[in-house]
Design goal:
The complex is a heterodimer of chains A (269) and B (310). Chain A is an all-alpha fold and 269 residues long. Chain A contains twelve helices and no strands. Chain A starts with a helix and ends with a helix. Chain B has two domains: 6-226, P-loop containing nucleotide triphosphate hydrolases (Rossmann fold), CATH 3.40.50.300; 231-293, Alpha-Beta Plaits, CATH 3.30.70. In chain B, helix 5 packs parallel to helix 6 (171-186) and helix 8 (222-229) crosses helix 11 (296-304). The chains are: A mainly alpha (269), B alpha/beta (310). Chain A: Residues 36-262 form the ABC transmembrane type-2 domain.
Chain lengths: 269, 310
């Protein structure tokens, strides 16, 4: 007859690796839409770079902040792409796991804990962001928009940036029972303004003073500025660079804390 | 230390959501190998009880031991030994039939090769071998249920928890499912099921607790409960919804006991045919009549004054 001690012993493997099994599941699921991920990951940068970086660059022949316009805009476009994937992944896929497909409940019926579900979810997305950011990075290198060898740092920076927007949104999505249009509102009133006023296409010094706060609270601005430091050595005071990192880490960590709490509440109530 | 023969031991188990008491101070035990049913109407607290046993919902008060452990503190270890069939299918729509099983087996730490082998065995058991590469969405309701049951068996569980396993299925699909569950019961798997279908509870349960409004109303085997709370036979007569109550007054002395429902009169007795003859003799010819054996539905009606499916 099995004793509790035997059972605890058998449960050690999922106790250690539960998060990885969740990642594995999500990678399996991704096979169903891998062609979309690959096509958009290759197509997006090329379209953006041609339209904005090359086309718009002709209107700004003097460049910005001492570098050609393409060099200026490329790291920010990469950040904007990865952060928008992060925002998307923090909304419907999370609510769906609780409400429509209920996959999170199915996983929680096994030894896997809510915290491991969150961990596996985030690790899977880090893999996805790395893939998409890696292809984008290859494209901007091919377009000659990365003068420095530290440019590859845009990949980890973009993952941190994506987490900083994903985790707070996922915390919210895990705590609502239905989407009565909130996601559309978030998209229009939070995500979209953030992309317009985050110094992606022009420095935030060009934004009226009364609107500049949008950039300061926007993870995209902080991620883009860090990306510029990595790709062409944007010169700024060290305190500002530290601020970028602190803001992104704070968003991601606080969001991650609330995301985990929302998952635990939803799965154990 | 050996685990006792009781796989579930609940004592004054209570679950409260705000002001609402979903489960109110219930106590019961389930021995290993038993097929145990929680019978009650929707909202009786069956699913909440099941979630606490499944170690996915923390209790508000009382004690609960599952496989000798406390679900509040040892949820993952307990869940590693359970198979769970939830009320609503939560199969992974992004994966194909066989992949659903393999991916699920991985959550228990099964190596991929072992999970694949087990998945093939269970697809055969669930009679789904011809659908292994199918997506989940096009499967019929019965097939999805069988796949969910196959999934719940991936870890060779000590106990299988089934929450309303056949709700929404057509009669044929229900019978196929019952057959599969009966086979598991024969193999000695402990089954715990909730249902609001009396025939399902009778078919699959060795012992039942009847639950209503979060409380246990009665406990025993289906036969014991029927013997204790109902008669051998039931005569159902219909006179039309406007006349049932009027006729009931005139035949109140027939049989042992009577229940007047909006659409029919139930007369509890040892000999339904004899009572039907008596009623007819008095000139009260029913529109339709039926003599049947007593069921758990009658037990529930007796205990609560309400029918199970309202």
């Amino acid at each position: 007859m099995t004793t509790p001690a035997d059972i605890r012993q058998k449960a050690l493997n999922p106790k250690r690796w539960g998060w990885w099994y969740v990642t594995e599941l999500r990678l399996r699921e991704m096979r169903g839409y891998v062609s979309y991920v690959v096509t958009s990951s290759i197509g997006n940068p090329i379209i953006y770079l041609l339209a904005l970086g090359v086309g718009l660059a002709n209107l700004v022949p003097q460049g910005i902040e001492g570098v050609p316009y393409l060099v200026y805009v490329a790291p920010a476009m990469l950040m904007s792409t990865i952060l928008s994937v992060g925002a998307e992944e923090g909304m419907y896929p999370v609510l769906s796991g609780f409400k429509w497909h209920k996959v999170f409940f199915a996983i929680h019926a096994t030894p896997v804990t809510p915290g491991q579900i969150v961990g596996g979810f985030l690790v899977h997305l880090a893999i996805r962001f790395t893939f998409t950011a890696g292809l984008f990075f290859a494209a901007i290198v091919a377009f000659g928009a990365v003068p420095l060898s530290t440019g590859w740092l845009v990949i980890p920076i973009s993952i941190l940036g994506a987490y900083s927007i994903l985790t707070p949104l996922a915390a919210y999505s895990a705590s609502i029972d239905d989407d009565g249009g909130q996601f559309a509102l978030i998209q229009r009133l939070v995500v979209m303004p953030m992309f317009l006023f985050s110094g992606t296409f022009f420095p935030i010094s060009q934004i009226p003073d009364w609107l500049e706060w949008v950039a300061w609270v926007s993870p995209l601005w902080h991620a883009s500025e860090l990306g510029r430091i990595a790709t062409y050595g944007l010169s700024e005071p060290i305190w500002l660079t530290v601020t970028h990192v602190v803001v992104l880490v704070t968003y991601a960590a606080v969001g991650g804390y609330f995301m985990r709490r929302a998952f635990v509440n939803r799965l154990t109530r | 230390m050996l685990v006792s023969n009781q796989v579930i031991r609940a004592e004054n188990l209570t679950k409260v959501y705000g002001d609402f008491i979903a489960v109110n101070n219930i106590s019961f035990e389930v021995p290993r190998g038993e097929s145990f049913g929680l019978l009650g109407p929707n909202g009786a607290g069956k699913s909440t009880t099941m979630k606490m046993i499944a170690a996915v919902s923390t209790r508000s008060s009382g004690n609960l031991e599952v496989l000798g452990m406390d679900p509040n503190t040892e949820g993952p270890a307990i869940r590693s030994q359970l198979g769970v069939v939830p009320q609503e299918d939560n199969l992974d729509q992004e994966l194909r039939v066989r992949e659903n099983l393999i991916a699920y087996g991985r959550f228990f730490g099964m190596p991929r090769a072992e999970a694949s082998k087990r998945a093939d065995e269970l697809l055969e058991f669930a009679q789904l071998t011809d659908r292994v590469k199918s997506k989940v969405e096009p499967l019929s309701g019965g097939m999805k249920r069988r796949l969910t049951i196959a999934r719940s068996l991936m870890n060779d569980p000590q106990m299988l928890l089934l929450d309303e396993p056949t709700t929404g299925l057509d009669p044929q699909a229900r019978h196929i499912l019952w057959d599969r569950l009966f086979r598991l019961k024969e193999r000695g798997t402990t089954l715990v099921l909730t249902t609001h279908y009396m025939d399902e509870a009778e078919q699959l349960s060795d012992r039942i607790i009847v639950v209503d409004k979060g409380e246990i109303m009665a406990e025993g085997s289906p036969a014991q409960l029927i013997r204790q709370y109902s008669s051998k036979e039931v005569l159902e007569v219909r006179y039309g919804s406007d006349n049932n109550a009027k006729v009931a007054k005139k035949i109140a002395d027939v049989g042992e006991r009577m229940e007047i429902l909006p659409d029919r009169i139930l007369i509890y007795s040892d000999n339904g045919e004899r009572d039907l003859a008596e009623i007819t003799k008095r000139g009260h010819h029913p529109t339709t009549s039926l003599v049947r054996r007593s069921s758990l539905e009658d037990v529930f009606l007796r205990l609560t004054g309400r029918t199970l499916v309202e």
